[in-house]
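Input chain follows. Return structure tokens only.
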Amino acid sequence: MLRIMDTNRRSYIGCVYDGISGKKAIKDVFRHTKRLYNPFTDIIKARWDKQLRRDIHAVAYLLNFTSAYDRENTCKMKEIIDVFIEMVTTLIGDKSIQRKCFDEVCTFHDRLGSFGRPLPLDSSKTMQPDKWWKFF
């Protein structure tokens, strides 16, 4: 996790969001001794604040089928949903289109329509995101 967070290259956003919980594991390894774990968690926090606390990254995570369809790592962060709603209401003036965007994201996350069929679910484990979204 530290290697991913401390690189200058853009990280795979789903991995990074899920890895933030790695801070707890780091604290556990150092038996919650702040002076020992702090240098490591500071790297994660600094990179998170500098690079990843951007609205577009949060929405990208929300729309990432890998995180959405992996029941163990399903996005339940209220902050991400709030950012999505804020972006939609800021960027789209028409309330009916705002509602449609929200409905579509709900359809995606609830696996309704074509999102609930076996092929999209199975393909989500093997396809690259851009190709997956092209077909489903």
